[in-house]
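Write out the 3D structure for:
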Amino acid sequence: MMKKLHSRIFGKAAIPAAFAVLTVSMISSVAGAYPVPISSIEKAGDFLPLERVQPKYPRSAFEAGVSGHVVLELTVQKDGQVWAESIKVLQAEPKGVFDKVAKDAAMQFRYQPMMIDGKATSVSGVRYKFSFNTEK
C-alpha cells in the first residue's frame, strides 16, 4: 500500500525525507580551511548551518531499499551562503546514487558568517556527511 501511495502522490519524483530515515551529520567542522586558520575556527566552536535542507531520497533508491551516504566538502562565503561551485563529493556509497540530492541540499544551507577580527571571512573545507537509510 505504501508504494501505491507514493506513486499516487509523488509520481516519478524523489521521495520526501518524511518517508525515509535520513540523517545529516557534520563529520568535521572544518578541514584545511583557507583563508581562516584552523585554530581560529576550533576556538569558535562547531561551524554549523543556521538553515539546513534535507535532501530528497531518490525514488529508485528508496523503492530498491538502497541505503548509503555522501561526504561533501564545501566553502561558505562571507555572506554565509554556500559557494555552489565549491561543493565536492569526497566519498559516496554507493557512487552516483545520492550525490546529486546531497549537493542540491548543501547548496541551500545558510551559515552565520565566520567573523575574524570583526570582518566576515570565507571558510573552505567544511565537510558534511549525509546518511540515507530506508525502513522498508
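The mean pLDDT is 74.
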